[in-house]
Amino acid sequence: MEISKCCLLLLVASSLYYIVCSTTVSHDGRALVIDGQRRVIFSGSIHYPRSTPEMWPDLIRKSKEGGLDAIETYVFWNGHEPRRREVVYNFEGNYDLIRFLKEVQNAGLYAILRIGPYDEMQNFTTLIVDKVKEERLLATQGGPIILLQIENEYGNGDIEIQYGEAGHRYINWCANMAESLVSDVPWIMCQQSDAPQPMINTCNGFSGCDAFTPNNGNSPKIWTENWTGSFKNWGSPHPHRPVEEVAFQVARFFQSNGTVQNYYMYHGGTNFGRTSGGPYIATSYDYDAPLDEYGNIRQPKWGHLKELHASVKLMEKALTYGEVVEDHLGNGLTITKFSGDGIVPGCFLSNQNSTVDATISFQGTKYFLPAWSVSILPDCKKEVYNTAKVKTQTSIMVKKKDNAGDQSKDLRWSWKPERLHDSAKGFGNSFTVNKLLEQKTTTVDASDYLWYTTNKGEELMLPLHLLLKTTFEAPLGSEPVVVDLLGLGKGEAWVNGNSLGRFWPNITANPDGCKQCDYRGNFQANKCQTACGEASQRWYHVPRSFLKRGEPNTVTLFEEAGGDPNQVNFQTVTVGTACTSAGEGDVLSLSCQGGRTISSVDFATFGEPDGACGAYVSGGCGSDEAVAILKDACLGRDSCSIKISDKMGTSCAKLASPRKLVVQVTCS
């Protein structure tokens, strides 16, 4: 996808001159208008501080391959201005916002930049806009940025309400301030029903954005945060959101005249250092996103959504220019047709009943709609996609022992007591005060540790802890690296001076709350959970860029709760097992990741087998022909695709057509 009309390269007197034609961005009540054309936009959130610069190109590439048009990110004031009003800004390392935006541009994607909220709203917003303009990153300058955001969810709940009229005046002030800085790229305000023009108010949430209506007829319908999962909490199970539910809500949004949709998150990443992102939020910010915390493709979520994007894009012209006709059939069944002169019509068939499947007769053809699903017919004839019919492979990720040795036995730990004598500004180790002190000010926001004990007054205590240290060899290969900290108590970890974040493996998740997951019906963060009764976070990401090859690496642990480091070990994360299914006439595709190849075909049967991916045992009709063909096409390769023909099921001829082949392979 090109993000500008033209880019002319001239060679004059041995010097290179670039003339980049600007991209015009506007909007009407139907869609964003880019270079004069209404567009459907799929976007995904990647927060640059929650990964490393070395990871950015790969994350952005996988996002583009997944069918995204744009990357969305917040701008992190806490990281860019670590000391308020000291005017010492940080735009280096994983806070290099400009480099991140240029990586997005280099990939040929658009960018959505969410600025605010900040205590120093005008000062910092102006700083960011000036930096962006200086690097010519606005779309109208030939850059990738097609939308800007000011403030964030101020109108959500009772935040604005408690300020009364002053809150409303503040929102108007924000809008005027933002428009004074940039007037040729649209601004949005999410969860802000009273956003003044020309601000576009937008929707956030798991669901409900299909029914959302902007507050002005000239504003397109935008979903800024479609939560692909949720954040992990210390002491809570792991939240998940099935891809069938995500896809259902996305399809319903576009069926209901939506035209810009963003996944929050597309890659969640890691809360490095002391940047947890909120009270009791764990170090992992995985978010059950299409790209996992380490940057691996999460299947089937990534692939099923990729197919959704392609299906919707086939009817982009109809969605943005066609007239809309809806036919409500009752019991949650709806047919929506987008059509017009000179436009190939596009249709959605939806079943919003959460328990009852249905068959719809439409234009002389019958279509089967599972409960809580949407079918997409880009020509109003052939179904090319259904949100509940997942055809993408399922990948089971495994952690493999470090091939540099069994380091849990080889690691030799040294330790020393660690006093936080430098963390209390101007006070020393301990002191007596007659009042409560503000945490961040007293510790210069350099420590989590500040306790009070009462003894004839209040004495602030910064107690003794342990600093543990050892060296290790970097795991071989290119697969993501994690460190297993089970056995430790609570504290913070570093590798070669780079903070991995806080650790707390000895706090376990509530044993209750993990039950059979049914994606159908209204979704909440606790609906589909795993890891009940287990450590709320055991594994911690060690980005490859933190490691040194061929020389010792140092891991340092600040332990405050008396844990045992003897179980600490490093492992890599990769696809261990892949499963998929396809009907006769369809193409069956399988792939590994991280340089792994398909080493065995474990299971191939026509019909419905017993068990689940990774644990298929029997059922259906085993096909020797299918196994032989799969071995020939797939073994030793990182990916393979074959068309399912009737020849593959000769030994299963007794099964009625159409038959479905279920396959499981091992990657190693």
Helix percent band: 10-25%
CATH architecture of the largest domain: Alpha-Beta Barrel
Considering the protein shown, what is the CATH homologous superfamily of the largest domain?
Glycosidases
Largest sheet: 8 strands, parallel, barrel
Give the distance, in angstroms, between the N- and C-terminal Cα atoms.
35 Å
Beta-strand residue fraction: 25-35%
Give the radius of gyration. 27 Å
Total strands:
39
Q: Tell me the domain tally.
A: 4
CATH class of the largest domain: Alpha Beta
Rough outline: globular
How many helical stretches? Answer: 11
Mean pLDDT: 90
Looking at the structure, the CATH topology of the largest domain is TIM Barrel
What does this structure look like?
- The protein has 668 residues and is an alpha+beta fold.
- Helix content is 16%, strand content 33%.
- It has an 8-stranded parallel beta barrel, surrounded by 4 helices. Strands 22, 28, 32, 34, 36, 37 and 39 form a 7-stranded antiparallel β-sheet that branches. The protein has a 5-stranded antiparallel β-sheet with strand order 15-16-17-20-21.
- α4 runs parallel beside α5 and α6 runs parallel beside α7.
- The two termini are 35 Å apart.
- It holds the Pfam family SUEL_Lectin.
- Its EC number is 3.2.1.23.
- Keywords: Apoplast, Glycosidase, Hydrolase, Secreted, Signal.
Topology:
Layout: E1 7-12, E2 15-20, E3 25-27, E4 32-34, E5 37-39, E6 41-46, H1 56-65, E7 70-74, H2 77-80, H3 97-106, E8 110-115, H4 121-134, E9 145-150, H5 165-181, E10 187-190, E11 200-205, E12 222-227, E13 238-239, H6 243-255, E14 260-267, H7 301-313, H8 316-321, E15 323-330, E16 333-340, E17 343-351, E18 358-362, E19 365-369, E20 373-377, E21 385-386, E22 394-401, H9 407-410, E23 414-418, E24 430-433, H10 439-442, E25 451-454, E26 458-461, E27 465-472, E28 481-484, E29 491-495, E30 498-503, E31 529-530, E32 539-542, E33 553-559, E34 569-583, E35 587-591, E36 598-609, E37 619-622, H11 624-634, E38 639-643, E39 660-667
Parallel strand pairs: 6-7, 6-14, 7-8, 8-9, 9-10, 10-11, 11-12, 12-14
Antiparallel strand pairs: 1-2, 3-4, 4-5, 13-31, 15-16, 16-17, 17-20, 18-19, 20-21, 22-34, 23-27, 24-26, 25-26, 27-33, 28-32, 28-34, 29-30, 29-33, 34-39, 35-38, 36-37, 36-39
Helix pairs in contact: 4-5, 6-7
